[in-house]
Amino acid sequence: MSEIPTLMENNRRWAEGVTERDPEFFERLSQGQSPQVLWIGCADSRVPANQVIGLDPGEVFVHRNIANVVVHSDFNCLSVIEYAVAVLKVRHVIVCGHYGCGGVMAASHNHPVGLIDNWLRHIRDVRQMNETALNAIEDDDARFDRLCELNVIEQVHNVCRTTIVQQAWEQGQDLSVHGLIYNLKDGLLRDLETVLSGLEDLPATYRVGQKADPH
Ligand code: CO
């Protein structure tokens, strides 16, 4: 069902449908974008940003990679965050993970997968940092679910530790960073209630701006 002619036909029908409902839609969007949300999610085909949060084209800026990892030396992700925060001035960054994540699963075992093991090392770090709490969970599925959640929480903090987000906060920009997790089994998002919205939410160790706590 994913042959190219089919996709082209799908596209033509989609564009016609949109234009029927809103004749100015594409003309308006061609003038520019002003999304209020940056979504950082997993590349998994079952977790498409726009559909999951019910937003149209133009309403959410998106970065996806395997297991929604935010690494301070990944210029791909950092460039997306910089453009979204400094130029588009989004008001919310959402890091969205999902239960049943293959990347997180691969990082929960000690079998080699390939090149991806290097990328997933970041999730092994999350595993190591939370070793005691994770080992206390006896049920394998529950432990895996918890690692998916802890990974989201860690990546929320990684977004906030970037100089980009810190500079935005120093300049008084209204910006909050949230952690959500998606359930493949019912299509519902759960708020992990990890929200950071200012420099005061950041440990002093990671503060690099002029207004950083002196000690
Ligand atoms: Co995933």
Give the topology, please.
Elements (H helix, E strand, L loop, with lengths): L3 H18 L3 H6 L6 E6 L6 H4 L7 E6 L9 H13 L4 E7 L3 H7 L7 H14 L1 H5 L4 H22 L1 H8 L5 E8 L4 E9 L19
Parallel strand pairs: 1-2, 1-3, 3-4
Antiparallel strand pairs: 4-5
Helix pairs in contact: 5-6
The structure holds cobalt (II) ion.
The site of cobalt (II) ion (CO) has 7 residues, from α5.
Give a brief description:
This protein has 215 residues and is an alpha/beta fold. The protein has helices spanning 4-21, 25-30, 49-52, 75-87, 102-108, 116-129, 131-135, 140-161, 163-170; strands at residues 37-42, 60-65, 92-98, 176-183, 188-196. A hairpin with a 4-residue loop joins strand 4 (176-183) and strand 5 (188-196).
Explain this structure.
With 215 residues, this protein is of the alpha/beta class. It folds into 2 domains: 1-32, no CATH class; 34-206, Beta-carbonic Anhydrase, Chain A, CATH 3.40.1050.10. The protein is built from 9 helices and 5 strands, in the order H-H-E-H-E-H-E-H-H-H-H-H-E-E. It has helices at residues 4-21, 25-30, 49-52, 75-87, 102-108, 116-129, 131-135, 140-161, 163-170; strands spanning 37-42, 60-65, 92-98, 176-183, 188-196. A 5-stranded mixed β-sheet has the order 2-1-3-4-5. A hairpin with a 4-residue loop joins strand 4 and strand 5 (188-196). Helix 5 (102-108) crosses helix 6. It starts with a helix and ends in a 19-residue tail after the last strand. It binds cobalt (II) ion.
CATH superfamily of the largest domain: Carbonic anhydrase
How many DSSP H or I helices? 9
Count the domains: 2
Strand order in the sheet with the most strands:
2-1-3-4-5
Q: What is the global morphology? A: globular
What Rg do the Cα atoms give?
19 Å
CATH architecture of the largest domain: 3-Layer(aba) Sandwich
Regions with pLDDT < 50 over 5+ consecutive residues? none
Straight-line N-to-C gap = 60 Å
The profile of the biggest β sheet is:
5 strands, mixed
